Structure to design on (697 residues):
């Protein structure tokens, strides 16, 4: 090989030596020099006249330390610089330098170094108690609103919250890290009984026990990345309650549930008391622009629901409300979950939301609209059943479900409450009780149903629109609570059944009404599309019936769907029918909301369609040839069971005669009356159809 090399004039290649930047020893030497420089700069006496260059030098050293730490984390072992950082506790010096400097650039560089140490897997800095105390001391000094904080911009605060989120995520995945960041101190004894009750109600504020948790709680209402990091980090903390009895007990006895409930109440209180839901001219939908829709609100003090300010406030409130249900989803402790729900019910529902409902009025043309609109937005944003049920059961004065369970000291489905949780709930009830019980108004006296009815009957179109929208939302999302409260119902009689032939007759009659009003070639296509939408809505409510289960027959399935009929004496139904009768004089947005309300009622599988929308089966009358269906010659060869099925099919296909006006469905009679009004207008104005066509174009 040497001979060939000399012959060809080449030299054998040698392995490249390790570059100085990749040598752990070289990195360690550089790291030590930078660390000692930082140490010497921190030990110098402060001189305001020469502090500028010193801070610049300190900032440069910290940036280079940050680069070395991150480079070391990516490099293969050995990690000598990280070992030196752990053994010499450089994080204490860096945190002290950032705190003393009061310089944002130095603080940013220090936070970046601490974040790099947290991300490193070599020395497990996150489990170090001294590291945790140094970091929390720095962060508390910089962003804690209760102390003399240092001025920092949003980017620095975001970096700090991202670091706290990373720590919370590590605690979630590695529960053994929690004791380094959380230490429950002994509960102070209180001699004064009254003070003790108040303290139990509010909870103990012990930020030194778990400063990480308080820093996150203070920012869960924020928008942007700061709020995202705070909310997600706090979710991870609540998820850790299932693995730490000490943390569970501490949260129940602390003021965290109170802070969360009062924070939600504060955001709700920021919303405008008077609201206008009129669309502005610039964004007016076409269906409203072609009508006599008015965009002028009679009360100038009402805030527009489409203003940037209101949308921002509403988004913040709904974001915090959604965070509440996320906390309940992630919480692994039954006691903590019950305590949170207690505070939500007593401090938010009973002390804030219901009084705002009670104090709202349709006279000022704004406060009722605001409360109804806020309630509708809350129900549309929530998905967790216990929160929705708690709200509606209390506001609708329904004594079932979750509220009934709260009145029991022991739940049959869950383990009993801890003494701390029971004491906390009792303190809430005691200290929020009215001093004059006789003057106290509860939902049993004036409920959300009363507010909806008052506003549906209101001459103010905005009030009627907001009430119909809320009623539709409750009917669509919580029909089990809407039946018997908003909609008065009666038990259905199953002695008579509807027939397919009756459905065909009803469809033909309603189609004839639609054709008489607007005979258009696309009417059939529109009907097919609407029928498909209705089918999807109905199928979503029908429970799945497995073909392998033989316990339920067809009759049982029918019983599970059509349980009730609408009561003719129901106040909401009568008010809605009264609005429908004045359809042509109503505001166009009220008519749109009213249409959606009737669609929601018709799509509710628990309510039979007769007699308000369909013919009453008890009043079916048939022609002579429909009474006894003719037997086909080929039917004689059928077996007994097949003949029975064939006879049942013939019976269900019979078409009843359309009855006189007094026995027609209620909705059909009203629509027929409205059509007659249109025909009368056509007689007096023969060019009505032409005028409507011109208006559309």
């Amino acid at each position: 090989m040497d001979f060939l090399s000399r012959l060809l004039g080449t030299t054998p290649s040698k392995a490249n030596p390790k570059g100085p930047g990749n040598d752990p020893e070289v990195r360690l030497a550089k790291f030590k020099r930078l660390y000692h420089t930082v140490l010497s700069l921190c030990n110098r006496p402060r001189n305001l006249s020469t502090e500028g260059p010193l801070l610049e030098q300190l900032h440069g050293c910290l940036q280079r330390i940050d680069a070395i730490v991150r480079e070391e984390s990516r490099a293969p072992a050995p990690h000598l610089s990280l070992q030196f950082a752990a053994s010499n506790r450089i994080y204490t010096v860096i945190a002290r330098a950032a705190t003393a400097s009061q310089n944002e650039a130095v603080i940013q560089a220090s936070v970046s170094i601490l974040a790099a140490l947290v991300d490193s897997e070599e020395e497990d800095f996150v489990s170090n108690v001294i590291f945790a105390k140094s970091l929390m001391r720095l962060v508390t000094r910089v962003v804690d609103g209760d102390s003399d904080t240092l001025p920092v911009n949003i980017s620095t605060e975001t970096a700090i919250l991202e670091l706290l989120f990373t720590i919370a995520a590590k605690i979630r995945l590695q529960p053994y890290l929690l004791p380094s960041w959380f230490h429950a101190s002994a509960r102070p004894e209180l001699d004064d009984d009254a003070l003790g009750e108040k303290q139990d109600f509010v909870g103990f504020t012990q930020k030194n026990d778990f400063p990480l948790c308080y820093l996150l709680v203070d920012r869960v209402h924020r928008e942007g990345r700061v709020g995202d990091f705070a909310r997600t980090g706090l979710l991870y903390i609540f998820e850790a309650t299932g693995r730490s009895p000490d943390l569970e007990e501490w949260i129940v006895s602390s003021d965290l549930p109170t802070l969360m409930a009062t924070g939600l109440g504060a955001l709700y209180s920021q919303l405008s008391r008077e609201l206008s839901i009129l669309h502005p001219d610039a964004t007016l939908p076409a269906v409203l622009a072609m009508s006599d829709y008015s965009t002028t609100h009679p009360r100038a003090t009402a805030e527009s629901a489409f203003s940037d300010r209101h949308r921002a406030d509403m988004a913040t409130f709904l974001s915090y409300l959604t965070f509440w249900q996320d906390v309940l989803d992630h919480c692994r402790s039954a006691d903590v979950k019950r305590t949170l729900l207690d505070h939500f019910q007593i401090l938010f529902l009973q002390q804030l939301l219901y009084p705002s409902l009670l104090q709202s009025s349709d006279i000022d043309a704004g406060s009722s609209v605001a409360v109804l609109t806020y309630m509708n937005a809350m129900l549309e944003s929530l998905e967790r059943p216990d929160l929705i049920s708690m709200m509606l059961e209390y506001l609708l004065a329904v004594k079932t479900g979750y509220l009934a369970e709260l009145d029991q000291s022991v739940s049959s489905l869950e383990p009993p409450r801890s003494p701390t949780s029971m004491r906390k709930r009792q303190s809430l009830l005691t200290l929020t009780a009215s001093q004059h019980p006789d003057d106290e108004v509860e939902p049993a006296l004036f409920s959300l149903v009363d507010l909806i009815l008052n506003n549906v009957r209101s001459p103010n179109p905005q009030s009627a629109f907001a009430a119909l929208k809320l009623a539709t939302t409750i009917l669509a999302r919580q029909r089990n609570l809407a039946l018997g409260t908003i909609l008065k119902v009666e038990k259905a009689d199953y002695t008579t059944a509807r027939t397919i032939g009756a459905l065909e007759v009803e469809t033909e009659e309603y189609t004839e009404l639609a054709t008489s009003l607007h005979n258009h070639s696309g009417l059939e296509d529109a009907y097919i599309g609407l029928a498909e939408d209705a089918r999807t809505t109905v199928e979503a409510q029908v429970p799945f019936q497995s073909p392998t289960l033989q316990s339920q027959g067809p009759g049982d399935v029918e019983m599970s769907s059509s349980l009730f009929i609408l009561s003719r004496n129901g106040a909401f139904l009568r008010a809605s029918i009264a609005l429908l009768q004045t359809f042509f004089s109503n505001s166009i947005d009220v008519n749109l909301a009213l249409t959606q309300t009737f669609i929601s009622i018709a799509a509710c599988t628990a309510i039979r369609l007769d007699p308000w929308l369909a013919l009453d089966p008890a009043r079916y009358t048939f022609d002579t040839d429909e009474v006894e269906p003719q037997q086909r010659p080929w039917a004689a060869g059928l077996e007994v069971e097949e003949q029975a099925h064939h006879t049942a099919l013939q019976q269900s296909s019979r078409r009843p005669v359309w009855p006189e006006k007094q026995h027609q469905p209620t909705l059909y009679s009203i629509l027929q009356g409205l059509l007659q009004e249109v025909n009368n207008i056509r007689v007096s104005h023969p060019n009505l159809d032409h005028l409507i066509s011109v208006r559309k174009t």
About this structure: Strands lie at 275-276, 303-304, 489-491, 564-566. Residues 334-359 form the longest helix (26 residues).
